């Protein structure tokens, strides 16, 4: 077994309204910053042990599918790297 | 001016309690997943125009410093890449 960290990034699907991101963008603009767009996402860093990188990615993918993301409104991606 | 996307990742500092991450970890364990730890973070993807990559990174850093992160409890990092 090797120790891995899987990073799951959960984003709203394109077209789903994100009032929190809109408010954050407006607040930055009120502070004088210029920006074209702002998107927010949730990031989960999961430490787990697995036989290999592919097994770690599959388990993290299933965690995202079953709990971390809502398939109706979210997209997600998974990245895995070995952990010291 | 070039179009960039700056990604700001905001994490709780080590030692700051994160009950939401704890609850998420427990929920995954109740579903039968094995994991050693789970950390959550906020991720902001900011589209902006700047003269060069360094200018884009500096502006995103200032946005994080002034609004996106709370220096008392958060650490953050900034990554910039050119956007098509």
UniProtKB/TrEMBL annotation, chains A, B:
It comes from the Archaea. It is found in: Cytoplasm. It is an enzyme of class 6 (ligase). It catalyses: N(2)-formyl-N(1)-(5-phospho-beta-D-ribosyl)glycinamide + L-glutamine + ATP + H2O = 2-formamido-N(1)-(5-O-phospho-beta-D-ribosyl)acetamidine + L-glutamate + ADP + phosphate + H(+). InterPro entries: PurS, PurS-like_sf. Pathway: Purine metabolism; IMP biosynthesis via de novo pathway; 5-amino-1-(5-phospho-D-ribosyl)imidazole from N(2)-formyl-N(1)-(5-phospho-D-ribosyl)glycinamide: step 1/2. One of its GO terms (molecular function) is phosphoribosylformylglycinamidine synthase activity. GO terms for biological process: 'de novo' IMP biosynthetic process. Keywords: ATP-binding, Cytoplasm, Ligase, Nucleotide-binding, Purine biosynthesis. The keyword ATP-binding applies. One of its GO terms (cellular component) is cytoplasm. Its EC number is 6.3.5.3. Its main location: cytoplasm. Part of the FGAM synthase complex composed of 1 PurL, 1 PurQ and 2 PurS subunits. Belongs to the PurS family. Part of the phosphoribosylformylglycinamidine synthase complex involved in the purines biosynthetic pathway. Catalyzes the ATP-dependent conversion of formylglycinamide ribonucleotide (FGAR) and glutamine to yield formylglycinamidine ribonucleotide (FGAM) and glutamate. The FGAM synthase complex is composed of three subunits. PurQ produces an ammonia molecule by converting glutamine to glutamate. PurL transfers the ammonia molecule to FGAR to form FGAM in an ATP-dependent manner. This is Phosphoribosylformylglycinamidine synthase subunit PurS. It comes from Halobacterium salinarum. The gene is purS.
């Amino acid at each position: 077994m090797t120790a891995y960290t899987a990073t799951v990034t959960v984003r709203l699907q394109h077209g789903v309204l994100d009032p929190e991101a809109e408010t954050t963008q407006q607040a930055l603009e009120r502070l004088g910053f210029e920006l074209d767009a702002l998107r927010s996402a949730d990031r989960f860093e999961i430490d787990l042990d697995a036989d290999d990188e592919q097994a770690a990615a599959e388990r993290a993918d299933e965690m995202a599918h079953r709990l971390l993301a809502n398939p109706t409104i979210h997209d997600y991606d998974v990245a895995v790297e070995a952990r010291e």
